[in-house]
Structure prediction request, 242 residues.
Amino acid sequence: MGRTTGSFPRDLYETFKMDNFSFLHYSNIVMHVTAGLIALISGLIILLVQKGGKAHRKIGRTFLVLLAIVVITGLFGVLIFGRNTFLLVITVSSGYTGYSGFRAVRTKSNKPKSIDIFAALLGLVSALYFLYYIKSIGMIWSPIIIYATVGFLFLVIAYDLLRYLIPEKKYKNLWFYEHIYKMIGAFTALLAAAVGTMFPDYKPYSQFLPSVFGTFLAMGFIVYFYRKRKHLKKEWLPSKKS
Prediction:
């Protein structure tokens, strides 16, 4: 039997040493991939079930928990294990968009909340840091992916900060369409990251085509529910009689 340190074999002791990140890194990757895969399955189910129903709300909460795990493990991968820094902006983008989509349906209002402003500013600082980092090391990733990802994040954050200027009466049900667009955006951000990782030989198409699909999907849902609500409103209006 090999030498031991305490009651553990030396090789097991070396595995768990803090200066040896291989085991922790591998565990982090497993958690990240597993949570991401289940989140994608949950997101797909949400797209198929009745919107606003019990199943939608329950699976939606599960999706958000899994998204939080993906974000945390993704940040660990970048900040602690020194993995691909591009994961930082993808992680921040999917995490912030999911958070903002959840807050839209939770508050159903555009009244300023300190926690929402803080989250928006944190996302903005993260995106600006990423652009600074890219400029310092050179453009080593596809420009179309970098600008599209960062641009989308800037767009969402800009809207979230400017929507406070919209009069409350005009804001009305915009939160509903915000929720649709942002949650589908978070789902397709995870999908783009997964497809891009699984099919690296087809980059950048494997990275941005899922996002394009998500955009059309979100717009389709928004148009569908807008027309449905408009139709229901007409049915509830009293008919004009001469």
Q: What stands out?
A: Residues 108 and 175 are 5 Å apart (CA to CA).
